[in-house]
Amino acid sequence: MNVIFRQFKFLWQQMPKGYKQYYTIYMLISVVHVFIFLLLPLIYRDIIDALTKEHYSPEKIFLYIILTLAGYASIRIWSLINIYFKEKMKKIIMDKLFHSVLEMDSAHFKSREPGYWASIFSKDIDMTSNMYLDFVYTLPAEGIALVAILVIIAINCMPITFVILSGLAIAGFINYWRDKYVVPYYDKAQEDFRNTIDIVNAYLKGVGDLLHNQAENVFIQKLKERFVIYSNHLEKYFKKDSISEYFISVTNEVTKMASVGLSLFFFIKGNFTFGTAILLIMFSSTACEKAKYLVENFKWLMNFPPHIKKVQMAIESPQLIKSKQNISSDFIALNLNNIGVKYNDKWVIRHFSMEIKKGEKVALLGKSGIGKSTILKVISGSIRPCEGKVEFIYCCPKIGLLSQRCYLFNRTIRENMLSVKPDAKDEEIIEVLKNVGLFDWFRRLPLGLNTQIGQLGKLVSGGEKARLSLAQLILLNPDLVLIDEPFVGVDKERKDEIMQYMKKFLQDKTCIIVTHDDDIVKTLALRCVYVRGDSL
């Protein structure tokens, strides 16, 4: 529970002041709802007792109807309001996470697999935002309601209280057994699943090289083995969990039936009125349901800490960039010394050496899947070579990568541009869009720079994605430019126009190009390097 409270404190600190006031009021309103729904059975008891005495009480019936309608209407209205606040808080957390990752030290960022960061921006952020749902802030009120119901039952009939507490104790013991002996199977299954995803991400980074080296069958076999382990743990969990759920349900139903029997027994004996018997039956059922609700939601809350922890570590990461002393435009040359990269114990590149001097434009040529893109990934630092060394003479330059896979965020055009240059002005962004041939497209957008482009740019065309990535590269203004099939999806007329601008842009830069397009080689490259199999 300490973990839950610490992480709840972290989430509370992310809230703007107005949101904190809203959630505080909402918790107080939840307590009011509790007292309304505690009062309703008491009024109902009085109505039943009055009717048994052939006395009609229109005032109490009217009060019962009004309180019922007011209580349910209030709950629905506040729940709808809460959906709005929950989505707003999700966006606030997402914005903080996004900017924190952008400011993160690249070495710290690359120390994690891509799947780790993808899961934070998908599943982890969704799970974290659920902590802003209304049920979390009604749990204290539900606990108050359970205690109040047990007190009312104890005042009217202690034996029924004993039966309910006994049932709750048995259900609690079963839940304890489930947490100790059943849930670990689920945790193991989730760990197996995460490991499987990590394996998939690791292999996907070199899928072209896998196919070239005919190693995909080994990958598929490993994936099947991991999936069998995952499914075995999950099957054991579901079998044992269904048994524990069955016994909990039986315990609750037996407790309710015993409470009903005792209520009617003491009514027949004359210990209390028929209205009180109905009241005790209603409260007995409610007590079981409240206890079950609290236990289930507290257990559900225990699923959140791993997800919140990942989000918290990313937002509060100590590995933020404090300076850029290691990055300089004064580098002299890049040396690749006997570079070797292998996937699944098969070498894709080996004994690869090359020297590129500052200001050179080099094209890497060769068959598809030969490992050219892998070389660019080694230079950019996105993968580490198994052998050899990447050496920047004198200092490390600022590196920009323009890939055939466009890595765009599910944000606005402006935010995607600011991700590479946080201090860029709107005028500068628009000028760059002109240079990459997107100005006419941009002018037709109703929201302009505030236009959302979707996950990985799925709301724009392939050609527009390629040119937006090029615009990011120009804004970044790197010293060493790595280009991998940059104009996929761009028509020839637009491509020629952009290449002329790129020629001017790359004039004083060092550039390495991977392409099969002769026009790009003739326009942009001065030297060609042919890659053959596992060597230069």
Describe it.
With 536 residues, the chain is α/β, with parallel strands linked by helices. The protein has 2 domains: 2-315, ABC transporter type 1, transmembrane domain (ABC transporter transmembrane region fold); 333-530, P-loop containing nucleotide triphosphate hydrolases (Rossmann fold). It is 65% helix and 10% strand. It has 19 helices and 8 strands. It has helices at residues 2-13, 17-52, 58-102, 106-110, 114-129, 134-156, 158-181, 183-204, 207-212, 216-268, 274-301, 305-315, 372-380, 413-418, 426-435, 439-443, 462-476, 492-505, 518-524; strands spanning 333-343, 346-357, 361-365, 387-393, 399-402, 480-484, 510-514, 527-530. Strands 5-6-7-3-8 form a 5-stranded parallel sheet, sandwiched between helices. Strand 6 (480-484), helix 18 and strand 7 form a beta-alpha-beta unit. Helix 2 (17-52) runs antiparallel to helix 3 (58-102) and helix 2 (17-52) runs parallel beside helix 6. The longest helix is centred in the middle third of the chain and has 53 residues, at 216-268. The radius of gyration is 32 Å and the shape is elongated. The model is unreliable at 321-325 (pLDDT under 50). Residues 25-284 form the ABC transmembrane type-1 domain. This is ABC transporter. The chain crosses the membrane at residues 21-41, 61-85, 132-154, 160-177, 262-283.
